Amino acid sequence: MKSVLLYIADDEGLEARLQAALDLTRSLGGHLHCLRANPYSSQVAFDGVTGMSVMYDVSEMTRELDKKLRAEIEKRLAGEDVSWDYREEYIDPSRGLSKNSALVDLIVLSSAGGEKENALPLGLLGDVLFNATAPVVVQPDDVRKFDACGPALVAWNGSFEAGNALRAAVPLLKMASDVHILTVEEDKDHDLPQLAASEYLACHGIKSEIHSPPAGKSSVEAALLAEAKNVKAEYMVMGAYGHSRAREFLFGGVTRNLFKKSPIPLVVSH
What we know:
Blueprint lengths: L2 E5 L6 H15 L2 E7 L4 H4 L6 H27 L4 E7 L3 H8 L5 E5 L11 H10 L4 E4 L12 E5 L3 H9 L1 H4 L5 E5 L10 H10 L5 E3 L8 H11 L4 E5 L5 H7 L2 H8 L4 E4 L1
Helix pairs in contact: 4-5
């Protein structure tokens, strides 16, 4: 992992994900790519047709806000000890992030747990996770750090998604002080046991500790968060969308609930 992609938007999670991206870039000795994806373009919006002037005003206002935001971010980054670049694209954010994921190693987004109207939407998180080729860090809005050298928790259910997440997170897990693998019984159809995950990490020189709590009445996400607190995990590695995306978003699910409730960063792959 050397290339970190940070989503730039003037929302309540910006400061937290900016600091997390800086911490990750330093830890990895990498390069930070800042992407401001904005679907509004004055060149496209204004063509002289009656009624388009309103759209033109919106795009002009957005462009001024973009200039101010860029100046603030570039001033901040100029004082940091990481290499970086700042790009602007007139494109839907989910499409822009997904497209740019082809040549980055990690994407930093915010959680969907904010209380304000400008919290990152679940839909954007879902679209990026479903289409991106790189793992996504889902950063809580009130956590302004990412300690790659602290303990890490791997949420394991033996699924394809969990395997993808574990494999993608290996460069981070190599830096972790401790790696804990936790299985919470949810789905009996998966074939890969905890031991397989632990053996895979061992092949990469990563020692891990397996946890298998007895089945209880608490939800899967509650069990994961309780264990994360117990082992003092700085972040959690997990697969997303073990069931269909529609079911996850319409009827709840572990992915959705952790996006809204997790007090620590999540490293997620689909």
